[in-house]
Amino acid sequence: MTDKSTGLIFDLADHGELHTRLCAALGLPAGLLHRRRFPDGESYLRFGQDINGRDVLLLCSLDRPNEKALELMFAAAAARDLGARSVGLIAPYLAYMRQDKRFQPGEAVTSTAFAKFLSSNVDWLVTVDPHLHRRNDLGEIYDIPTQVVHAAPEMAAWIAQNVDRPLLIGPDSESAQWVSAVADAAGAPFVVLEKHRLGDRRVEVSVPEVQRWARYTPVLVDDIISTARTMIATVDHLKTTGLPTPVCLGVHAIFAGNGYDELVSAGVARIATCNTILHSSNAIDISGQLADAVGKLTR
Ligand code: R5P
User: Fold this and answer.
1) 239 touches 207 (CB < 8 A)
2) C-alpha 176 – ligand 1 centre gap (Å)
3) Would you put residue 101 in left (φ > 0), alpha (ψ -120 to 50) or beta?
């Protein structure tokens, strides 16, 4: 149980403003965590307050997870060792959700292994729109209480405020469920494309008949923008339809490599993402919903 006199929120991944907003929304003070790297690359961590008997909330979005997982494990282990009453993880982006089955003999099913790793290190987890492929629920792989925040209402509100006559476009059939939720909330029509992934950085999409939407602004909506290939292929395809220049909306702004610059160069009216991963395209704040979800687990 987190109560206001014992809870502290530690920023483990330089979230900055999101950390400040979460502290304000939860009415909890920011914790002080000293982090640095030794010359050989090993991590040094020190809690700057006495956390004995306190609830420790670790804020750590898990994009670039290989760089962050060990520090997260060290922080959680130290918190337990120092007598923390509980250790919770707020990971607005949850990594390793895509390899959820063994496609080729011998492959590691990383989503299950990563879930075991986190479950053994923290007492609860809050995240935003995890990429549930073939799974229905995080409880299928996580052994700890979890809460999932859905960014759809915030995305819909942003669209309603910023886009004239929006036509929402989902990249593939998997996205249909939540693109339709955003569209419903925004009171906008939507279409869903067919996507064929030919490799890590090669994507083909087919856009259905969209001439009837000629006076609408296409709003491409996806949960993750990683290499941005999905968005770029869609933007390129839309150019052949005569629709206005599209707006691109993503929940999680990974933007691997030059993905962001390449998407800008593809010709888009605007790119907006949620602040689950710190990025210059962040325009949609989900701290309020994150705080509500933390409240549900710790009340
Ligand atoms: C895939 O299933 C996801 O919903 C996204 O469409 C995908 O992760 C986007 O990846 P990229 O930006 O690399 O095309």
Assistant:
1) no
2) 14
3) beta
Reading the block at residue 91, the tokens are 């990971």
Nearest to 35 by CA among 6, 15, 53, 17: 15
Ligand 1 contact via 252 beta carbon (within 6 Å): no
Runs of H (alpha helix) within 206-299: 229-239, 259-267, 287-298
For 143-157, 205-219, 256-270, which range has the lowest pLDDT when averaged over its residues? Answer: 205-219
Helix (H) or strand (E) segment spanning residue 179:
helix 176-186
> Using alpha carbons only, what angle is made at residue 160 by residues 156 and 166, rounded to the nearest 5 degrees?
90
| Segment holding 160, helix H or strand E | helix 152-162
Nearest CA to ligand 1 atom 3: 224
Dist CA 107 CA 34 (whole Å): 37
CB of 228 closer than 6 A to ligand 1?
A: yes
- The protein residue whose alpha carbon is closest to atom 10 in ligand 1 is 226
Q: What is the mean pLDDT of residues 255-279?
A: 98
Beta bridge partners of 43: 37
User: Is residue 197 over pLDDT 90?
Assistant: no
Mean pLDDT of 125-148: 94
Whether pTM > 0.85 for this model: the answer is yes
Q: Is 227 in the pocket of ligand 1 (CB under 6 A)?
A: yes
Looking at this protein, which amino acid is placed at residue 94? Answer: L
Please tell me the predicted confidence (pLDDT) of residue 204: 72
Please check the confidence at residue 161 and state whether its pLDDT lies above 70. Answer: yes
Q: Please determine, for residue 119, whether its predicted confidence score (pLDDT) is greater than 90.
A: yes
